[in-house]
Amino acid sequence: MKLTKNRQYTVRLMAPFNMRCKTCGEYIYKGKKFNARKEDVENEIYLNIRIYRFYIKCPRCLQEISFKTDTKNTDYEIEAGATRNLKALKLAEEQARREEEEAREEETNNPMKLLENRTQQSKNEIELLESLEELRDLNRRQEIVDYDLMLKQYNREDEMKRILEMQQKEDEETIKSMRLKHKRLQKGDTKIREETIETMEAPAKIKKPNTTKMEVSTSQSARNRTKKNILSNIIKRKLPDENVSKPDMEGALDVYQNHIKFRSDILYQEAIFRATS
Q: Of 38 and 208, which is predicted with more confidence?
């Protein structure tokens, strides 16, 4: 079965643009759905792409409206039955395109016109650069400079003072800890002395038993021996603590204080050297 060459097909489509019917004046808005007839346009091809024509009917008066595809401009072109609305933007774009094409043709044909256009562009660029420089100068004049912040950023004396204060605090804390240790050692010596006194008084408080003279003499000799042993132990314990511990602690404190003073002097001299340099 052979089909006709230019056969029409019924398709469902939406209005591609806003239009107005010529007979009744009905407005047909973009996106309104229609049952349309589609056919190929004879003897019209653009880059081997077929061009199609569509037929719709006005929803009010049933007047036939036809439009076709415009593949060159990727748009639709109305043919009969209605007029296109809001066409100002499209006309403006077409006019701008024509003006650009005319200017290009004129430049290619007339080299003096090309030279004039280039000189005008260079003048415009120079004027723009001058205006930018003027705006920068105005902004610089209106800027408010905070000199205090600038001086604080580049002044290092405050930082050195803060560092010295922190070091002094650390040195004071270490001195306090050394003094506490020295006091604790002194308290330990006093406790040892009290214990020795108690041990010496303890045998004196023992009551003498009512026995014979031999027992009394033996008890006295035993007491004397215990006293001698206790005294010898006390002397052995006390001599190293009294003769060695106290002088060593006092000397260590003096040495540490001198070291701290020497260290603070060096840091202060370094801070002055950095500030001057």
A: 38
